[in-house]
């Protein structure tokens, strides 16, 4: 029986993490479970940095980006001593369970702690990258798409005015989910993702041909290439310089960066966060351990934490084909 549980947010923050904290605290209260929130991700466990979370503490946080518990990466957890220390903190505070809101890296951390912890552990997928297996979408992804889209639409205005070629770099670590989705929604002429293989400097011809084709067909016009980070050695600024040289036309690079992590979560992220965090607490009560609460085909579903990062989550092959064969041609 769970009487006390811990909760933390870890890794890259994502819009909707607050909605998840709120839903977890409200659901726990309904089951008479006390909640302790650890601050700054796993560091809160190692540094004894925690606070009691009551329903009144999570009022009116659903609409805010970031996380009221703060987030961080925690080097110490990569060592067995760190994992042992984290488990000791959970035992000392008499916590029967721990709920972790984060990405697949945080879930690796959860597995490390589980080696030494006697209680239950459950994960809720929170990352803008949508690179976690076992759930159709992660909390924060939908908001990140809209944020990127808003920026690309604005870049389109200035690109149109100057008849320029723009390369817009979006986040995703080693996943092209954000780039593909935002690129499709923005009507980008080309999209480059790590899933297509790292582009090498001597392979620019494949990019140049469609640009020249578009120039022939449409005359001078704006041209937007959405580039997922880590797709080109040296980054998107280097790619823009290489393209400028190859084409003999100035190409501008715009790196969107951490703007994509902020902002008020869109409705879809608030709903997903509420559903997954509530489901996670209920499943803890039902005895779930070392599982992630995900959503597949609109159904909440448990998925083993150990498998969340086992294989690379595939970006939509239908959209990839359409973009490459029709939109980019
Ligand atoms: N293999 C691992 N072993 C132990 N802890 C890990 C491991 N991978 C990640 N973590 C912990 O999870 C934290 C967040 O992971 P990270 O990959 O940065 O973000 P995310 O959870 O969003 O994928 C790391 O800073 C570290 O504390
Ligand atoms: O904030 P940092 O440490 O610069 O990390 C940037 C990375 O974090 C992210 O924004 C989110 O990644 P995670 O959710 O896996 O932490 C990535 O898209 C990006 O590559």
UniProtKB/TrEMBL annotation:
Primary localization: cytoplasm
Catalyzed reactions per annotation: beta-D-fructose 6-phosphate + ATP = beta-D-fructose 1,6-bisphosphate + ADP + H(+)
InterPro entries on file: ATP_PFK (IPR022953), ATP_PFK_prok-type (IPR012003), Phosphofructokinase_CS (IPR015912), Phosphofructokinase_dom (IPR000023), PKF_sf (IPR035966)
Residue ranges occupied by any Phosphofructokinase domain in the UniProt entry: 4-283
E.C. numbers: 2.7.1.11
Record's keyword terms, sorted: Allosteric enzyme, ATP-binding, Cytoplasm, Glycolysis, Kinase, Magnesium, Metal-binding, Nucleotide-binding, Transferase
A GO cellular-component term linked to this record: 6-phosphofructokinase complex
One Pfam family recorded for the sequence: PFK
Pathway(s): Carbohydrate degradation; glycolysis; D-glyceraldehyde 3-phosphate and glycerone phosphate from D-glucose: step 3/4
Gene3D superfamilies assigned to the protein according to its UniProt record, in alphabetical order: 3.40.50.450, Phosphofructokinase domain
GO molecular function: 6-phosphofructokinase activity; AMP binding; ATP binding; fructose-6-phosphate binding; identical protein binding; metal ion binding; monosaccharide binding
PANTHER family the record matches: ATP-DEPENDENT 6-PHOSPHOFRUCTOKINASE (PTHR13697:SF4), PHOSPHOFRUCTOKINASE (PTHR13697)
Entry's family note: Belongs to the phosphofructokinase type A (PFKA) family.
NCBIfam families: PRK03202.1 (NF002872)
Identification of the protein by name: 6-phosphofructokinase
Natural source organism: Rheinheimera lutimaris
């Amino acid at each position: 029986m769970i009487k006390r549980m811990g909760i933390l947010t870890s890794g890259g923050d994502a819009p909707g993490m607050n909605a998840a904290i709120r839903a977890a605290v409200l659901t726990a209260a309904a089951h008479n479970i006390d909640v302790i929130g650890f601050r700054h991700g796993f560091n809160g466990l190692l540094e004894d940095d925690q606070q009691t979370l009551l329903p009144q503490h999570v009022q009116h946080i659903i609409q805010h980006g970031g996380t009221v518990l703060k987030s961080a990466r925690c080097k110490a957890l990569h060592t067995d001593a760190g994992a042992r220390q984290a488990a000791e903190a959970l035992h000392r505070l008499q916590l029967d369970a721990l709920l972790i809101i984060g990405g697949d890296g945080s879930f690796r951390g959860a597995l490390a702690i589980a080696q030494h912890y006697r209680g239950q552990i459950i994960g809720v997928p929170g990352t803008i990258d949508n690179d976690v297996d076992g759930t159709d979408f992660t909390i924060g992804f939908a908001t990140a798409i809209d944020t990127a889209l808003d920026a690309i639409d604005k870049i389109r205005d200035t690109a149109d005015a100057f008849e320029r070629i723009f390369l817009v770099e979006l986040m995703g670590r080693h996943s092209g989910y954000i780039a593909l989705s935002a690129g499709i929604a923005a009507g980008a002429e080309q999209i480059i993702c790590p899933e297509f293989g790292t582009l090498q400097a001597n392979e620019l011809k494949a990019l140049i041909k469609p640009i020249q084709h578009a120039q022939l067909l449409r005359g001078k016009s704006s041209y937007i290439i959405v580039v997922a980070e880590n797709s080109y050695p040296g980054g998107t600024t280097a790619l823009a310089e290489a393209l400028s040289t190859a084409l003999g036309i100035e190409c501008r690079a715009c790196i969107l960066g951490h703007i994509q992590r902020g902002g008020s979560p869109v409705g879809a992220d608030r709903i997903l966060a509420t559903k997954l965090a509530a489901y996670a607490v209920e499943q803890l009560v039902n005895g779930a351990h070392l599982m992630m609460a995900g959503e597949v085909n609109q159904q909440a579903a448990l998925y083993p934490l150990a498998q969340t990062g086992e294989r690379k989550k595939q970006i939509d092959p239908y959209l990839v084909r359409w973009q490459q064969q029709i939109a980019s041609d």
